[in-house]
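Kindly go through one protein, given below as sequence and tokens. The question is how this chain folds according to its tokens.

***
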Amino acid sequence: MKTMISLRKHRYVARISILLVTLAFIGGTVGCGQYTAPVPYTLAIASTAGGLVNAPGGGNHTYNNGTVVDLTATPTNGYLFAAWTGDVDTIDNVSAATTTITMDGNCSITANFVKRYGLAAGERHTVGLKTSGTLVAMGDILYGQCDVSGWTHVLQVAAGKYHTVGLESDVTVVATGMNWDGQCNVGSWTDIIQVAAGGLYTVGLKSGGSVVAVGDNTSGQCDVGNWTRILQVAAGKGHTAALKLDDTVVAVGDNTSGQCDVGNWTGIMQVAAGGGHTVGLKIDGSVVAVGDNTSGQCDVGGWANITQVAAGGLYTVGLKSDGTVVAVGSNALGQCNVLGWTDIVYVAAGSFHTVGLKSNGTVVAAGWNLYGQCEVGGWDLG
């Protein structure tokens, strides 16, 4: 009898032990984090003017922790993809239109697009980019700066003092014109998404957010090799400015008039560099400027509803949201006579002349015309 009771007792203890071990295993699994319920996070996606996010689309999306989400941004006609901004720490490549983001928390990101630059004004010449990717040019031909008729598949154009630069669809760069300082030595550049032409130098923004430059470096305007996370570049007479992904601005080069004193700027969406001044367009449509103001070219404090800015030699031009144009600064040669312009979608400022692209593809111009740089009335860039 005692043996029977003892056997039953051992079986009971064994069953209890198994149950306790099982409960302990389950409890340990939950308590030690070896198994946790998926945590949902929100991915909020927005885009600037000029494009859309096709995958996964704009708005709010919910994903579990650790999910790798495909991102695809597509620019509309006349625009180029620039970069992703916002909570971008887990984006694989912030400068790629097609990339991924890994969800490890709530994220808010924006796809940024920039206008395809269809018009450029140099010292004594004007260049227009057609929607076909070909170019037209008017003005001084002394250094070959207007020799662009053979260029095709161009996405963006820039004009320096005596040279012209084009960004091609395969993200390489071409240049023509004066090359005394090596400003046209861009043949080896690759992976470029934007170009800017200064007085005697050229700047290129790479897709990864770094910057390259060639040409005259007397004032250090080409010392951009350590720049990172750049969204847009602008080249002046002897200084270079750049918009960063965090909406701040950096600048190098000639600072004799304080044109590089942009370190405290915030909330900027576009920059322009002139002869001796720098202009910043703020997200709210207002404008700031620093540098040489001897002709009033920095008197932009009262401007509002501006969508694009351009900086000339001694003047500044602003495109308003209603398609009209404003200008301040030197008007010695009529370069600021733009108040009657309407239906404008893009403006460019040279040393002494201003050009504007209308929505129908035609072009208007004002200012110095000694070399025929303002004879653009017959152009149709559409």
In short: Helices lie at 2-31. The first strand starts at residue 40 and ends at 47.
